[in-house]
């Protein structure tokens, strides 16, 4: 992959900048110092990035032309600006990236590669939204209590969505004690830790090299193999991974820790849908009430769907839960631990090993609700399609 760069500014500063960019993945396609020639030079060379090496009025006028008329070429200011008013003028001209001119060559190149990858993902995401209004969804599996089956739902929901010809990726973002790999029955040396250690600015191509593939067609990114490395992943890196994958996959399912921190706040913000899981007992509902209050203050409850886990008939009714939590019950997963535990011990997704179990049928129905497919009971359908009637069949 080569990044095409056009240099903009006076000839001396451009020459100094070009000397720093002597790197095999960087291609300098030209130098321009006249604002009247900027658009013509962009048309001729089609640069990915445009590096502006001075803050003269000419340069700022050129930046404005680029921003308005050539939005696919990203302007980047490479200059040490210590004046607040000048900084505002630069930003108003359409420059969203400002790098210090004092950066060492390798650091400068790394920053440019990161910006390039982010912008490619952003443009692809915009194009994807325009061509597919109901895809590219990020589904967060969240709840304030461990042990309610969040990981089980994440894995089995992914398998059912994949069976309906969707491209699905699962991210195990419980960095200490994630068990997505175990439920899939896989051991991988490539985890999110190895990804961020080798790729400071991950893009879709590099991320896919670290994804494991399950026989169902689901890709998944395991959590670190050792919990002591959980702090090695930053919130920004996790967000970049989600942003990159949502461009390519129809569904990105995020399984995370049962607590609020800067990571979960980011996941909540990124999510298209939040499957909020709780059980029916009073302590769990109290915690659910607190958690939903936080989510409501942060982003509102419009994208939250309440899922009751390990549901058994009892004194607490759905309408009581809805009144207490101020949100209706969207779906219920029955209490059937034996099948879930047996499947987990064998390292086989529940919907594959026990497709006729009540849990599997309810997870299939959840997948159908999310994807708009046609659900059909396994008991009524002799074919081996599972619970899905494939679209168009």
Please describe what this structure looks like:
This protein has 393 residues and is of the alpha/beta class. It has 2 domains: 3-129, Rossmann fold (3-Layer(aba) Sandwich), CATH 3.40.50.2300; 134-389, Rossmann fold. The protein has helices at residues 11-20, 38-45, 57-69, 84-92, 105-131, 150-163, 180-184, 192-198, 204-208, 235-248, 262-270, 282-299, 318-325, 337-346, 350-353, 358-371, and strands at residues 3-8, 26-32, 49-52, 74-78, 97-99, 137-142, 168-173, 212-213, 219-221, 251-256, 273-278, 304-311, 329-334, 374-375, 388-389. The strands form 3 sheets. An 8-stranded mixed sheet has the order 8-9-7-10-6-11-12-13, with helices on both faces. A 5-stranded parallel sheet has the order 2-1-3-4-5, sandwiched between helices. It has a two-stranded antiparallel ribbon with strand order 14-15. Helix 3 links the parallel strand 3 and strand 4 (74-78). Helix 6 crosses helix 16 and helix 10 packs parallel to helix 11 (262-270). The two termini are 39 Å apart.
